[in-house]
Structures are given as C-alpha cells and as structure tokens.
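Lecture notes, unit on protein representations.

Consider one protein chain, 296 amino acids long.
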Amino acid sequence: MSKGKITLFLMSEKGLKVLKGIIDFYGTEVIDLVVIGRDNAVLNDFSEDIEKCAKKRQIETCYRNDSYVISTSYALAISWRWMIELNERVILITLHDSLLPKYRGFAPLVSQLINGENSLGVSAIKSSEEFDRGDIISQAQIEISYPIKIQEAIDKVVELYVQLTLSLMESIISNEDLLCHPQDDSKASYSLWRDEDDYKINWAMDAQAIIRFVNAVGYPYKGAKSTLSGINIRILDAYVLPDVEIENRTPGKVLFIKNGLPVVVCGKGLLQINQAIAEDTQESVLPLSKLRVRFS
C-alpha cells in the first residue's frame, strides 16, 4: 500500500475545490488516483471540471463505473452517493454536510436550510457499515443568516471542506494515526433522500418557510416546483411581503400583480415571485398579466 498518498472519490463543486486545495497546498504527488462520479440530478455536476483539473496536472483519473485499483492506505470521499468497495487495509474518510450525529443521511445541507438552522457544519468521519455513523475525526462550522440561497451556502461549506481536508492530509502525509471519537446516537437525527416530488411547493405553509424552501432547492438544483395555468414551472427567486387581512384565505391564489410580478397568498404571509420559468422550455413565465390565476 502506498503511504503518504490518498485516493479521492470526488463529486460536485465541493470535490473540485477540495482537489484544488490539496494541489495548491501539498502538490500533486500526494494524490494517487481521482475517481469521479456523475450526478444527473443537478444542472452542473462538475465532473468534467474535476477531470480537467486532475488531467492538467497529470493525476490519474477514472469514472465510478470504470475498473480501478486502490493502492493507498487512505481514501477520501466528497459528496459521494454510492457504496465504495475497499479492502480492510484501506481507511475510508467521508466528509458530511452536517455536525453529526445531527442530519445523518441525504441532502443534509438542503434540509438544514429548509429548517432554518443558524449554523452549518461539516464532519470528517471514518466510514462505517451503517451510513454516517462512523467515528468523528474532526468537525467545523460557520454561522449563517437568512435569506440565504443554496449556492451561497455551498460556497461557505466548501471552505470548511478544504479546511478539514488540509488538516487530514497533514496527518496522512506524516503517517500519523487519526484520532477520533464515537458519535452519540442519542442525539442523532436523519435527513431523507429527495426526489422530484420533494421539489413541490406547499402553498399552505408559512411564507417564511416557503422562501427558505425556494432558496434551498435553487441552483445548482432545478428549483422549487409549482403549477401555473396547467404548466409546470420552477420558481427560482421570490421575496416575502408583509401579510394582509384576507377574509377567505386560499393559499396559492394570486392576490396582487406588482410590475408583472405575482404576489401569492400563503398559509401565512405573502410571497412575491421574482423569477419563474416553464419547466419544459426554460423560458420565463413572467411578467404575469392575468390576476385570476393560482399556483398549485
């Protein structure tokens, strides 16, 4: 096994930034192999960017379904969504988008933003048979304020990824044992996987909750989903307005149109739609001229 080197399993912008961080700080000789994953659920999965970055510096690369051999004692997985088959001599480290044991599971960053958490965190853990239950090696966190869009949150979390990775690499290069401690299962919570149904807006919710949702599933994801006059649309940007007294409150109905921008009634509060596109054509559905319509 190659000591002082690492195998990287990389996806997303986080994977690209971690790769660049390692190269900038430690050089290319510490990276033995980069295994790249693709993600069709996002508009840009950064797989080509990761490949170009590695190949430009003559680092060996392959994709997830290619044949490859792991010859390092350590492997690091960033944004990885699949099981990694490794022999028992390889220690797999995973970086997870939460302060474990909170938000184990899938899309934890999105779930934290939807829930309005005041801080975001990243945990470096040793891989275990049960997902996200491995011993914690190190953690880092950053405070945030709302409104905040997912891309801005990713940018902040990426800094934590690079920070933790460079610290890990120092120990790996020096062949030092990684100190870790078990998670407290009594404090654990879970974040479920998300699919197309989970992009749908529930207009009966509070406007503040809806705007957090809209911002949490925007770019690089496809955007919050709704229906307008029989057309599936994606709402990309919105703004909460002060509520008014509505005698027959019906969530989803348009109450006002301000300069072509619809103001939609929510279960509590109002939401002004600033940017929305048709799902099939990707063309804007704004400005809106017809008042008697509803979002559903």
